[in-house]
Structures are given as structure tokens and as C-alpha cells.
Specification:
alpha/beta, four-stranded mixed beta sheet
């Protein structure tokens, strides 16, 4: 089990006369702005950075010094998190990583070894660098409890599996974002067939394709013996955490499908039987029974 928790996308700390804000998601920028105004009112200098500013560069310009570099800022988001490379060669249109960090890898060979590894695409890294990461975990006797952003189905081979299996104590994470990835995902799930369902954690993006295509991907992950983690598509510049509605989706449908999947309600009911008002109905039935019992 991983000790500690993520701060939720907005890390905040003070050193001397300076307050620092590290913002991972654009929908945390309004909150970051409030915190910057507060710190300035307290007489502190405010510095801000993080991925959110790659999209909305000037959002805090009037209340903070934006940009620059702060070594190992990731640890402020989780005390056990680290990263051994940046960038990703895949270039998914809905992902900020290739736009911000590039489509070629920047290797960080002297990374601090910690239990949560946040590289964007471990299986696409050069084999010798994957070996370097694994050897550093072994040498440090630090357990790899979570390869957080995971592996890419297209490059996840038997060699990759055998390389990482001795040290990976957490789930095997990868994504099934589009129907075009079906063949690679099916191959990986077959490779992992002897792993328990909770160790096959598949990110499933929804809202980027019509309802039927997205729901089919969720059901396939379940049918292959995995556990889907559903993520509704949100625009990269969104200032609130509201899914973007496309195709035949509605906002409520996106919410319902995500809740049904991520609360693992598929273990007990089909999506067609999911009722978001279940608790209200349950309370009403209980009240009705109480009245009838008088």
C-alpha cells in the first residue's frame, strides 16, 4: 500500500519570504489565484509554475512570478513520487505531455528513487534505460509500489513485462483510449492473464468517441479480466473539472458511466441497470416501509 496521498493538483509551500504554487491542472488555477492573492496580502512574494501554465501562461501574471524551475517539485505533490524521464513519443491529441515535454525522451538518470514512478511511457523508453531504472530500484531496495502513468500497449512486449515484473508491486497501468488500440490492448491483457484483476488497471478515456465505442472499450477491459479506470475527456484549457460534451454524449451520461465504472458497480449491475438515484430511492422505500409498519 502506498503511504501518503496526492495533494490533488495544487501543491503549496513557503520558504522564507516566498510562497510557491505548483499547479498540475488548469481547473486548479482559480484556486491557485485565490491562494496567490492571500499570500501577497501576507507580504510574501509568490512564485508559480507547473503544467497548467503551459496552456494558460498568463493566468496569474498579475499576482505571481510565473515560470522558472524548482528542483523536484513533483515531491510536493506526493512525498513518495519521482520521475526518471520526461516526454512521450506517442503524441495523443488529448494529452499535454508531448506538447509540453516533447515527443523525444529527456532522460533523468540520477532521479531520486521513490516508490511512485511517474514517467509518462515506461515501455517506450530505450531498453537499456529501462534496465537502468530497474537496477536503481534494486540497488536502493526501494519497492516500486506504483508505476503511476504506466506503459503503452503498443510497446508493451514480453521483454518489457519480464523486465519490470520482479520490481513492480503495484498495478500494471496502461490506457485504452481509442478503438484503434484494441489489438494491442487485447494482446497485453492476454500477456497479463495470470495477474489478478486489481493488478490490471486500464485507463479508459470516454467522450472522445461515440457512446457505444467508449462503453464497448470499458466492457472489453472487464471481459478481459481487468479493472477499468474511466476518465471523461476534459479540454486541456478547462478552468473547471467539467467534461467536454461531444458526439452523442451528455454531461450526465459521462458522469454516470464514470461512476458506474470507477465505483466498480459493474460487479453487481449492468450499465443499463445503473440508477444514479439509487440511494434516494432506497431511503424512500425505507421510509415507506416505516410508515406501513405503524
Amino acid at each position: 500500500m502506498v503511504v501518503g496521498s496526492w495533494v490533488g493538483g495544487l501543491a503549496e509551500w513557503i520558504e522564507g519570504e516566498t510562497a510557491y504554487l505548483s499547479v498540475a491542472f488548469t481547473w486548479k488555477l482559480p484556486e491557485a489565484r485565490e491562494r496567490a492573492i492571500f499570500h501577497r496580502a501576507c507580504g510574501l512574494t509568490v512564485r508559480a509554475g507547473g503544467p497548467a501554465f503551459f496552456v494558460l501562461k498568463h493566468y496569474l501574471d498579475d499576482v505571481a512570478e510565473v515560470g522558472g524551475d524548482y528542483p523536484d517539485a513533483l515531491v510536493r505533490h506526493h512525498p513518495l513520487a519521482t520521475i526518471a524521464s520526461r516526454g512521450c513519443p506517442v503524441g495523443c491529441w488529448f494529452c499535454i505531455v508531448p506538447k509540453m515535454e516533447g515527443r523525444t525522451f529527456t532522460l533523468l538518470p540520477d532521479f531520486p528513487v521513490r516508490p511512485i514512478l511517474c514517467d509518462n511511457n515506461l515501455s517506450a523508453l530505450p531498453a537499456e534505460y529501462q534496465d537502468h531504472i530497474v537496477s536503481r530500484y534494486r540497488a536502493a531496495a526501494v519497492p516500486l509500489l506504483d508505476a503511476n502513468s504506466g506503459f503503452e500497449p503498443k510497446t508493451f512486449t514480453e521483454d518489457v513485462y519480464e523486465r519490470w515484473r520482479p520490481i513492480n508491486r503495484g498495478p500494471w497501468r496502461f490506457a485504452y483510449d481509442e478503438q484503434g488500440e484494441r489489438g494491442d490492448v487485447a494482446r497485453v491483457m492476454a500477456m497479463l492473464r495470470h495477474e489478478s484483476p486489481k493488478r490490471k488497471r486500464v485507463y479508459v478515456l470516454i467522450g472522445n468517441e461515440p457512446v457505444e465505442s467508449c462503453v464497448d472499450r470499458i466492457r472489453e477491459v472487464i471481459g478481459w479480466g481487468g479493472e477499468p479506470h474511466v476518465q471523461p475527456y476534459i479540454k486541456l484549457n478547462a478552468l473547471d473539472r467539467t467534461p467536454h460534451v461531444r458526439f452523442d454524449w451528455t454531461r450526465q451520461r459521462l458522469t454516470d458511466v464514470a461512476r458506474w465504472a470507477n465505483r466498480r458497480l459493474w460487479r453487481y449491475m449492468s450499465l443499463d441497470d445503473y440508477d444514479r438515484h439509487f440511494k434516494l430511492h432506497q431511503h424512500a422505500r425505507a421510509a415507506e416501509q416505516e410508515v406501513l409498519s405503524w
